[in-house]
Batch of 2 targets.
Target 1
Amino acid sequence: MPAAERLAAPLPRSPGKERPLRFAGLGLLVIVAAAILAPGCGSKRTSSTLDPLLAQGWQAYSTGDFDFAAECFRGVQTTQRATADQTYSAILGLATVYHLQSNPDFGKAREYYALLAGLNTENARKQSALGLARVDVAEGKDADGRSKLAAVMRDYPDSTEADEAVVHLAESLFAPRADEAKPGGFGIAGDASMERGLKLLEDRLSARPRNPLASAMHMMLANKYIELKRFDKALENLLAAEKDGIAVDRLRSVVVWRVARIAEQQLKDYALAERYYQRYVDDFGRTVLYYRALTSLERVRALMGKEGAQQGKAEPSKGT
Amino acid sequence: MLLSLWQNLRKYPALLLLVLVFGASCAVVAVNAYRAAGGAVGQGRKKVLRIAHWQLEQGIRDAIDRLIADYEKLHPDVEVRQILIPETGYFQWVNTQLIGRTAPDMIEVGSGGTVGWALWPKFYARYFLPLDRYVDEPNPYNRGTALEKVPWRKTYFDEMDGGYEETLQSYYRIPLSAFTERLYYNKDLVEKVWGPTFPKTYEDFLELCRKLAEYGRKNEKKLVPIAGSGYNFRQFFNAYRTAFTANYLDPLDVDMDGIVSRIESAAPIYSGRVKLTETPIRANFELVRELSEFFPQGYTSLSRDEAIFLFLQGSAAMITTGSWDYESMGVQSEFHLAVTEIPLPSKSNPRYGSYVAGPQTEAGIRGGFPVGITKMSRNAEVALDFMQYATSLKKNEEVNRAMYWLPVIKGAEPRDELKPFAPRTEGYSASIEYEGPGAEMAYAQISIEYLSGKLSYEEFVDQFMQAYRREVPAGIQDVLRNDEQTLNQEMRFAAIRRAALTGAPGATAVATGDSAAQYKRIMEAYVAQVGVRDSDIRDWTENARQAEQPARQSGR
């Protein structure tokens, strides 16, 4: 008997007991169905019900509930009804979870990032390329990772993904490496590597000066120039970062403080130091450095007064 | 028919039990859901808001009740109820309520010690309403005041920094009050022993302590000058640590960001570039040891509550604690209470004067008594409205005056008695952390032995530095591992924003606010953190190399 007919056929009856038994059976069926339907496991997913599932997945990912996030994304990825965009979000979600969860599974991350590339949209390809490169770097495959990051810059030159690739490539070139044989357990990046990283950031800033990560790149350059004690270049980049607009207030306060401190202590440019200490006092009155900025402002003004007085004394002697 | 159904069902007891349990569960869930929605039986159709906090003092409760009454007068369709939970079990209670999805609409957040510190960001992300879309709009309850057109965030004295969750790069908390710490004293007793003006310098303060001790002996009274405890002692120590180490900022802050990081402080102590025998550091420890002679015997094992009890009983003349205790101390003490700053050595002090930079700054304090709004609230918009009411210029002043706490809104005036608690903007932050990563336990044990007189300063330094050299390398690796976790967390958030920017369904719904702006913020925070990490590692390796050189030379 075909399955459909079997389901349609009446159930065999036991004489005298049929009605109550059927009722009990029906009750049992209702309870079982309710139990199955209540958590939503038995429902068929349509493309319109998948967006909330994706949102649940991203939400779970953002709160560190990675297993549940992966489950949600997998639920969408494996259904036939998902739209192309939903499939993209699900695969990207899976790749991201495996890549960035507390105990990363780089193999699976790589697998899903590779799947993304097959989706044939520019967004998917860009995320795939950036993701694969970053997985290599995270696994310590520096040469592979760096060449893939360079490929993102080459293949999608005007994209934010390329901007981010520049940041990660520079980071990889600057990063100290764990090395038990070295003092403190780290090996510091060599000069050539440092110079490559600096040039990379500077080239990107000349090519795309208004890119969304420009302020971050200038801050990165300033950090390195301070580390290398090249204070004129550090100052140049701090000023550029401030001009570009720093979104995080706390970081803007650090940049203003650094400009003032470098100008005063390293470059003896007291006029610039005065301007930036004043800016710090005006804009960041609720930070722990406020009073230091205020006293430094007084000190710098005193130094400027002394310099002015010395120049005043020196000038007539020039004329005589 | 019912009888025959019963006779038949009787034969299936398991099924019957299942049906009964299922029915009972449905009823319990329905009643709880109904109650959670604010519609307890016989209670009309008002929107009910519930606010949970651990401020059990009568004065605080009454002040909040008055605020609620005023709000309800303005909004007769709303009823606000306080849920008071003792601080000891508060974090566990909140945890259960959040997981069980029965949490109130508004919750005082941030308790739970170290565990709570780690878990709250996860709670915010999962259970609390992000406030980013509201904080840049004016608070409607400021209409007609100087703050009428000012964004809500900017009406706070700290620009709502106390509400910002750095790890999530979002606003989740609405602070109601601010707190500072001061030296409280028994005015009657101090005036009797010393005179009407409290000592302004450490020298006079020490003299006052001597006189108080002598007064106790003469009058056969059980009296200690200072109610020190393991907790209160830290406030003294930190005030003096700041005064003596503030000038180390420039030599130690190698990345010039204005903060001496844990590694920037530990690396030069490890290598010996900074020695604990240097005069400002030695002076710091010696001063605290000198002062601790006026604390109760075995003070480090006393709890905060025991110290407060000693003070309120009149068995101690002074105690350091926060402005949060002002009202309850005033009510419980049978003497006049006064508040002052911890006195510092004067510049003319021959022993300490030349090393003292100044007092500890409070310019960086953030709003406290922070309240979050839960996502599961059926009336989240009304809860937000209530919190905006509570943080309007007029109401924030009123409620804080009633609670005897400091308001958080610009222009709101505290009570006159609280003026000594106004945050001190003139001052410094400490620039050395003695403990060192990994050496915290050793520091706690050995420093107490020094402060209690069991070790000389040289013995303390010698023993502590042995532990320091042994423990700090591993401790620094731990700090760097934590840094990596922070960086990873930032990359997680950047990934959501990037996904939202490419239109990934679901990611756009989760990423509230402007994703492009948030992505820029996260990447800025990320590179800043990478910069600190790289600079810290360079500083550490250079100091570690320096530390190895003498060892190698002596090995030859």
Note: The CA atoms of residues 63 and 69 of chain A lie 10 Å apart.
Target 2
Amino acid sequence: MLPARFELHRAETIADALALVAEHGEDATFYAGGTELLVALKARVLRYGHVVDIKRIEALRGIAERAGGTLVIGALATHYQIANHPLVLQHFPAYAALSADVANIRVRVAGTLGGNLCFAEPHADPPALLCALDARVVLAGPEGERVVPMTDFILGEFTTARADGELLVRVEIPRMQVGATTAYRAFGHLERPAVSVAAMRSADARWRFWVGAISGHPTLLECAPEEVADAAAKLDAHDDLHGSAEYKRHLVAVLARRAAQACLS
Amino acid sequence: MSAVPMIDIAFVLNGRPARATIEPRELLIDLLRNRFGLTGSKRSCDVEVCGACTVLVDGLPVSSCTTLAADADGRDVLTIEGLARGGELDRVQRAFVSHGAMQCGFCTPGMVMAVKALLALDPHPSEEAISHFLRGNICRCTGYVKIIEAVKELAR
């Protein structure tokens, strides 16, 4: 399949990219790894006359640590780069492991974190764990930058808090509290998770379970591990290609228990 | 829709400089197959799941069916046709032959390219690492056992 015709613009700076999308409005889109966008363009479920390639923008690259220990991940960081980056492996091994398991190696090599989050495909791995890690998403727009907590970023299936014309520029993850532990578990028979669970145990033994892929956005269960099965049974879920609603609720309980065990081991 | 500006790209293809003038929407697999006659990379699932179209870009595997040809600009592209040197097969190809690691052969070019990338990144992968890396390369004949055996021999 071939996408419909479009003009390709190669932006060199964030300002260039924002200006191009502002100029062409709804007929323009940002383009990075293309693992979601090109599939949709080929299937013609999306169509744009102007595709703004942001891969040459140096300011969107890189993974670094800021004073205070906050990890800053550029929007163009690929799952492959995140999985293998020394800072991620050292401070967020659960996130490195998640990234090493996204889809397949070709998707991990091409697919970017920024694109993954902005596309907001509900059966994606990173959002649930990034919610558990209290990550923040930084958006750049014509008026400047604004910060959105990850827990508020994904609004529903393929829908985020990013306004038209805004570009996700980086994701920030604060250093975990000393003594806190986190783990992520996912299961699916396709390349995407049917459901996933990110568990976070604070230093004072409070638990949070962020459930991914169960609905349009990550869902929080704030309860002890022994209460997760009951909480999971009440989750809003629907039947789809990935399994029945009942099966998914069952998976949540199993995955939450496993993630909790991993936090304690 | 009216015509859009074409793009000139220059890249390295199987070790040699290459140039092309392309439409922005052109896909890497079509550039390779239709313009350069390199038909080893196969179009199959067309959605990055099966791996039959795998080529290496700067040493890493990509789905050429879902990569813009424009993104080959300035990069190093290696296809199955670029592996043999002076009429001699690459060691990955030889291992696949000696282990009979192919049935219908349709997945083989992509499988070989993925293995090429794996061994460059990790010369001695465990069986688990081999399976994990090749998870995105599907053999519809289900000939996985011999493929894994071939890679295990290379991984020693």
Note: Chain B has a mean pLDDT of 97.
